[in-house]
Queue: 4 jobs
Job 1
Amino acid sequence: MPVLPATEEAISQAAQALARGEIVAFPTETVYGLGADARDARAVTKVFAAKDRPRFNPLIVHVPDIAAAETYAPFDDTARKLAEAFWPGPLSLVLPKRPASGIADLVTAGLDTMALRAPNHAIAQALLKQRSCPSLRPPPTGPGGISPTDATHVAAELGDLPAMILDGGPCARGLESTVVRVTGETPALLRLGAVPRQEIEAVLGHPIALADEDAPIASPGQLVRHYAPNTPLRLDATEVEPDEALLAFGPSAPQGALTTINLSAAADLAEAATKLFASLRALDQSGASRIAVMPVPDQGLGEAINDRLRRAAKAR
Ligand code: TXA
Ligand code: MG
């Protein structure tokens, strides 16, 4: 399958492939994803067949803007406030699905709610504007399931499956979107992600609780193995063994690891988020017997980074 620079022509070809029921990989500001026409049950089936994605894991439908999203799900005041604050951007809203939305049941895993997101990425926007029906975008997950943040990751893992891969270079954010459910009385945080919890609370004007991750119906996609490299992880490392790879953070990384990648020598959490998945991937292939991970402050984006690291450590 071809990896194409995302020229105007390649984007048109991708839109045509989606219309034919094929699947296409393309970048967003968070991670790359596999796109299919969310109203085409057969195309969606191909996305599910792509990896060991469990059937009950619902997908996010991607749209260019609020107006497009409203054709699939009604927005209440809270949903509108959040979308106006963060769209286009790395926030997914879980909303009641319109009965006549036309979205394939497989997309929503049979739920009467659906997740919607308008990505802030020129290539994704150009594609979504051409293809009036939404693409859904589960990021293909690699061996052990680290989300792809570069077209080469996608190519390495998906083989012939997508009709094409639009190459947009590395993703600016590197962490998946924050997922907020806006149904029922109070909004709930279903997944930590690229929009920090505090920013959402600032818009809502009140704290937002993280839904219990063991409640499968609340967020069926919160599967631990989503983020797991094959090499075991040792968290909160302050020193390192010679057979370990070191995932460092900040200016004072300990010496002596087999190999070291610093998420951000300047201790910048946004830079660390951008590099997280690619770094885990590289260290996973380093031949080290363990990946030692330095502590990352649990504030702002650090909360989501630590969430991914804990999942990666737990999944083994
Ligand atoms: O940044 C992202 O969100 C990336 C890019 C490609 O947009 N996509 C992504 O998709 O991470 P995925 O499939 O790995 O995660 C979708 C998340 C899961 O946690 C899933 O449970 C949740 O969204 N979700 C989707 N529909 C839902 C629904 N109706 N109710 C509750 N959670 C839902
Ligand atoms: Mg995922």
Job 2
Amino acid sequence: MSDRLKELAATKAASYVQDGMVVGLGTGSTADFAIRALGARAEEEGLEVQCVPTSDASARLGESLGLDIQSLEDQPVIDLTIDGADEVDPQMDLVKGLGGALLREKIVAAASTREVIIVDPSKVVDRLGTRSPLPVEVVPFAWSLAQMRLMELSRLADLRQGSTGETFVTDNGNFIIDCHFDEAGIVNAKELELAVNAIPGVVENGLFVELADIIIIGQDDNQVRVIER
Ligand code: 5RP
């Protein structure tokens, strides 16, 4: 999907940021546009914000743009976070984590007064689990047990591989198991979120239920669609 639509949504989201705010930086190609938009506002308008990144990659990008990067330890209350998503449903619930940052993304979302999600139209679905697998972060020691249990909750549970065929490792030193569902997708996201997190060795999963406050969709007509909870 075109970068232009991602950038449209990202620029709109960055316009919500005000001087002095603590801002959560999401992860992924769409969130990168928001980080760049914030960097541009800092340079052009002198906007001063403190930023809590959801991944090492977003921390590096923010730093390279001169943004003030802080830890969640130092800034446990975040005014506004801008992040991408892999799926958004009509209830504003999400699947996240194809980029592998779901654990920190979910923690930062929970610490945020407002969670702003920016997407292009390809991410909008009628039901979660129909476009994207559900990523589940597991501790390496437990991955094979977790995979077995996840197979009972999904059609297929695949240990994620990196680009060169090795097991993908998250910023937290964990593995990811991607759970695929049949055409009907995920029937009850809240129930599934709890069931997945009850498996020993599962650290977190990519279902974001009732966490998004604002969804911004970049559209083909150069407009953005803003949906508020
Ligand atoms: C990373 C994420 C990303 O927000 C999600 O994968 C969307 O990424 P992109 O904007 O590159 O499509 O959840 O863990």
Job 3
Amino acid sequence: MSTPMPDNQAVARKTTTQFNQKFAEVAESCRPKLHEWIERPLEVMSFKPDTSAWFQCHPAHRMTIDELASTPVGKGDDFILDFGGHRVGYFSFHLGAVGNNIDAPCRLRLTFGEVPPDVTENLADCKSWISTSWLPDEVINVDWLPTNVDMPRRYSFRYVRIQVIDTSQQYRALFSDVRVRAVSSVSPETFNSVPALNDSRPLLHKIDAVSQRTLRNCMHTVFEDGPRRDRRLWSGDLRLQALTNYATFKDFALVKRCLYMFAAVAGADGSLPACLYEFPTLHAASDYIVDYDALFGAMVYDYAVASSDLDTARDLWPTVVGSLTTALSHLSPTTGAFDSARSDLWKFLDWDLTLHADAGMHGVVLYCCKRVDALAELLGYPPRYEAAIASMTAAATTAFYDSAAGVFVSGPAHQISWLSQAWLALAGALPPDQSMAALLRTMKDPAALKPLCPYGWATFAEALAVCGAKEECLKLLETYWGGMVERGADTFWECFDPKDYRKSPYQDYRNNSYCHAWSCSPAWLLRSVLFPDS
Ligand code: RAM
């Protein structure tokens, strides 16, 4: 039995979609062309158990790809192809045969691994509460040999494990011309022409490169959250992807497309879903997250500033206003503070379910109101949220600030978390020097609750950079994202706890995504905030 999903996940969006055909058409007009290129595996290898290694195994060379082409394989043979780096695309190979008589299909199991455990561990007993149908293995039967085999689904991987379930006693199979037709909306030319970072530290260059590869591998006909899982557009992830894209590939049309897709599926109450699907046709997911909804206006503001496309911002203005309604309905009429208990809707901020969300949510909503008023100013509209901003700024101190401790606290147990400080700092609830002091104090407090996923860590890193704690921000990038690089990441992971490779928001790390959108933001922080001359 797998674990039941957390309660807040079971709360569906409480509105009906008012599908906006005109917005859907604008989104369609911005559909990107997908670029394709061929990549081939570098070698045939295996993993040996190694308890000193992060994923408990180390790689060992078995044979070259040329040797594989002349090595017949049959029942029980098992080998791993290493493509040398993370790829997203369509896998194909030529399957030949040697023997007297090809008298039966060739049955294969193929497992596509983003990281070593995908191809070393048994996936069949995965206990995660999200669907195990995401697990990256397939059994195929190839009827007539020799033939070319083109796998129809798109995969996300560095390693491909091939287990020969059976050929027959009459013949053995031969693998050649193994390749992946890699795809992304970012062309190889664009990918290779992003100017280098204006700093000489090698680790920062690696972090920058891995961030860009993460973003590129998530960019398809939408900004996907992960090319392996969930392969769809989530708004919280989109904010970080869009900002990183402005600092690197500058694909404004793809951001515009995604913003219009959300606007096309707004609810009757003005709210936006947390994520949406483009297949089989554009529609809203039932998932709803209060903070993701509120962030839409900030995303439109960021887009307008980066692209100078004010027409889009004007067109989306009513959607922006609607998207703040649910978040604002959580403000207590007596204290002016965000009160999660005012609804059972999902307040996210990060996957750690022990996080008390009120202080951080107060910060998100205040941040969004300020961004939306900045957008109004850009568009020549009167400010809309001045009163809310004033009362929320006051309430941030009265309801959440512990002046003796010099940090923000949340809930009856006065929880001190990194995310409460981060969002209230980004919201400018206190002057930057005081915000910076709260951030730094929290970092030194061993009892303070840290984020679980890079989404939360990215928020904290952004807050440090914005408040002027640039050295601390760099150190955080080097230890947290650099920690993934040191452990072999060539795209950044959905979840990373340096003390535990099995950590997962889903109860089982085998369903984690290892190329995840919300982890790509160092390339943006490094370029736009820390080294703006890059
Ligand atoms: C995960 C998704 C996505 C995130 C949501 C809240 O399931 O992969 O990245 O935005 O959670």
Job 4
Amino acid sequence: MTSEKIHIFDTTLRDGEQVPGCKLNTKEKVELALKLEELGVDIIEAGFPISSPGDFESVNQIAKVIKNATVCGLTRAVEKDIEVAAAALKPARRPRIHTGIGSSDIHIRHKFNTSREDILQRAEKATRFARNLVPDVEFFAEDAGRADPEFLARLIELVIKAGATVVNIPDTTGYCLPHQYGERIAYLVNNVPNIDKAIISCHCHNDLGLSTANSIAGAIAGARQIECTINGIGERAGNTSLEEVVMIIKQHESSLHLYTDIKTQMLNPVSQLVSDIMRMPVQPNKAVVGSNAFAHSSGIHQDGFLKEATTYEIMTPEEVGAGGSKIVLTARSGRSALAHRFQKLGHEFNRNDIDVLYQQFLKVADKKKEVMDADLEVMAKDYQAKEIVL
Ligand code: KIV
Ligand code: ZN
């Protein structure tokens, strides 16, 4: 069975940049867009052109420099928005307009104060209008995670008829469970007669920590595009994390029969770049790119890892561009890790030496969060001095 491609739609510069404090200027956005292209993302959502002159300028500059990836601009289902996005995207080799409207009754009633029929009309009109300006139009059905499936299917059928090339099914509020989100995508695959004319896209938020699982469930059910951000940054609790979905797909290619074109060795450097320019630290225990993702600190794990790395690592740090695996020495560490570190520091101790040194090590470790090389050097020196006296 041959694998099928999952298109990676990166929205770090749009949904990611909506995070308070993460705003970037045009120069920073262009720098990041070029890195994302090098990383291998298929679509770069560069911004929301009508939202500010600065965002228009950023989308326009990105459209000028990006050569291979599709450059996308967000709009509401409003003609003026769409015209402005098309103008910003004019220099792009592959422009895409991303337009859409609320699809759940909660959004229809409270945000738009209107009816389902009116939403259908607005969606169709906006899609048709956008399709007259660019050949690639993605339609988002906002809050699709909570929409009535039958209505959602009608809406999606209509926008595909109107020219949508990609249909985005956002779980805007991060509400769905993975099996529910997967079923939603499967429902569309089975109930939208023209679904084969468009790519289905997953856009999941992380309010319950399920965005990655939901996106993968969507892909299993037939979606072929995943919308995500570097480090999972985005509105509220964030978006699906690019590095997580990419590595899940890579690790499980033989059972999922899916692949991406992401150069995984660039994941850690790009994560660091985003963290630096957005001044947004990455949590240490973050999958794939956290500073502890390849750190081993308990004695049982360290002993296994030192015997054979695959006992506790399902991917190598090199594969994702991380500096390397780390053995962290704490009060939970064991003798093998201690002996290994002494050896790395150039001290060859036998088993009896290590037994004695280990007692000293535990005393230091109980006082400190982490025992550093400098502490070990002191221990080694004291121990050797005592040995000479004896
Ligand atoms: O979360 C969402 O629904 C969005 C849309 C604008 C695609 O970000
Ligand atoms: Zn979003």
